[in-house]
Amino acid sequence: MSVQKILLYPNPNLKKIAHSVDKIDPEISELIGDLLDTMYAGPGSVGVAAPQIGVNLRICVIDVSKNRNGKDNNHGLLVMVNPEIIARSGSGIMREGCMSVPDYTGDVERATEVTVKFMDGNQEIVEIVATDFEAVAIQHEMDHLDGILFLDRIVSLKTGLFRRKSYK
Ligand code: ZN
Hints:
By secondary structure, the chain is an alpha+beta fold. The chain has a single domain (12-158), classed as Peptide deformylase (Peptide Deformylase, Alpha-Beta Complex), CATH 3.90.45.10. Helices cover 18% and strands 29% of the residues. It contains 2 helices and 8 strands. The strands form 2 sheets. It has a 5-stranded antiparallel beta sheet, sandwiched between helices. Strands 4-5-8 form a 3-stranded antiparallel beta sheet. Strand 4 and strand 5 (104-110) form a beta hairpin. The longest helix has 16 residues, at 26-41. The chain is globular, with a radius of gyration of 15 Å. The two termini are 25 Å apart. Bound molecules: zinc ion (ZN). The site of zinc ion has 4 residues, from helix 2.
């Protein structure tokens, strides 16, 4: 397991629809380990998806517990394989960033509560209800599995896109 290189926009691999995963075999476990190492190595990163490290599979990892916006309300580390949003409600605008788009942040409107069903790293099917910052992080990472970047969802290109001064 090791930290992997993050593909940067406009790499065409970031625009692909990722494939479902059948089961958690040793190769997938190793990939999950790589995603975790890569997420925790990224400054302030709260999630990473397999397509961002060049693997076109429906896997993402999320952990908002160390972020000031997510620390009081989270499920800790989430390993999501084939995640599906089965219910969503509310809506809010939040400033988002992405390791694949290091030079910009942007305002994106998303649901503030999502119910997500997924397979975890132990091949168990899990369902959770996530809210606020964690819900946004989940929707952001799941978008990567469909080839969508936050840049595609900016509320306004005129007023909703910001050049990042520093990553932290
Ligand atoms: Zn991202």
